[in-house]
Amino acid sequence: EKRRLHEDFFRSVETNQALQNVIVQARAVLPTLGKYKKAVTALTLRQSKAGLTEAFNELLKSCGRAFAVPEAFCVLEWMEVLQVPKDSYTYEAIGMNTVKRVGLLRKVWDLPMAPEECEPEVVFAGRSNVGKSSLVNMLVGRTALAPTSAQPGKTKTMDFYSANSGHPTLPRFRLVDVPGLGFAKATREMRMRWIGLIGGYFVQRKTLKVVFHLLDASLSEILPADRDLWKLLAQARRSDFELCICLTKADCSLPSQMERFATQVRKALRKEGSEMAINARIFACSARSKLGKDTLWRKIWSAVSDADMTGIMPENLEGQDDRGLGEIEDTDDKQRHRPNRQGHSRPKRKELNLQL
Asked: Which of the two residues, 163 and 180, has the higher pLDDT score?
């Protein structure tokens, strides 16, 4: 269809009957993958990589051509259920599928200068030099969309990036990169300005959907600037957006170190006491290795899109994990949802709420 219609293809995706028929067929076939779970998981890692990874990646590419993002996330879910290894192209494909257009919308010094509240917004916050801008670049597949530097304090404004602006099919939303807290070389006046800007944003922006708070996993330490951010969130007194913790630079940390740090973060969040902090979810990610890119996009997509994904997602399969790869589960929560002696299964994915 793309070869036949050329540029007209992009203007007629939703009304192209031939394309929609293929998508309907794919939605019907995907749930049947469950019957192959035992055979696929029995394969060795080399056997899986030899064929299945490439096949699933090709399916992801096809989903991108058809702007079928819910189906693409379903493919990722099945890769996890079937334990099919992901490679660098898998992570690149999901980013290309969800964002076709992205650009800087506005740099903001004061909140009244912020763009009009008309699209969902996702915020990346944390202390200075934790890797916020690098994570934004990794997610959208760019190298210099958000300016980065080895020197702390590169981001001095609240930067709004518009995603899928003007796209005929994909949902439009914004990524927001905020100044880092705790930058020692900034003047006191500048630091207070940043605190007022970020705190005011949390209170006033009704289009805010998710706050990703970045913590440096290589340090494995919660700094005062991180607790200051939690205080700003608590002072906003809102429950209409989510808090997610991103443990960045995970490729520089051992899995055991990540687990210990995640446990430390959970205990600190519980002490905060707010419902938002207690219900926060923790993800491991890396801007360099792209670890967690698919899981973060899944979280963002669920917050900014109202696409119906019922009927195609793998649910309640025996042995299925209730989290995406890249998300660090709470061991206490895992114990609570383990099947009991009477054989009662864990809650389905939609009903499961990870309590951290």
From this structure: 163
CA distances from 115 to 28, 164, 254, 298, 304 (A): 41, 16, 41, 25, 17
Secondary structure letter of residue 85 according to DSSP:
P
Backbone angles phi, psi at 105, to 5 degrees: -90, -50
- Identify whether the C-beta of residue 229 lies closer than 8 Å to the C-beta of residue 221: no
User: Band of the pLDDT at 66, cuts 50, 70, 90?
Assistant: confident
Higher pLDDT, 12 or 201: 201
How far lies 185's CA from each of 128, 238, 344, in Å? 11, 32, 57
Q: Strands 173-177, 281-284: parallel, antiparallel or unpaired by DSSP? A: unpaired
- What's the CA angle centered on 53, arms 48 and 57, to 5 degrees? 170
Q: Closest by alpha carbon to 213, among 259, 247, 184, 245?
A: 245
pTM value is 0.83
* Model confidence pLDDT, tens digit, residues 231-281: 999 999 999 999 999 999 898 888 889 999 999 999 999 998 888 998 999
One-letter amino acid for residue 68 of the chain? A
Q: What is the pLDDT of residue 338?
A: 47
What are the DSSP E strand ranges found in the chain? 102-108, 121-126, 158-163, 173-177, 208-216, 242-248, 281-284
Please give the full DSSP string across 165-231, using - where no structure is assigned. TT-SSSPPEEEEE-PPBT-TTS-HHHHHHHHHHHHHHHHH-TTEEEEEEEEETTTT---HHHHHHHH
Strands 173-177 and 242-248: unpaired
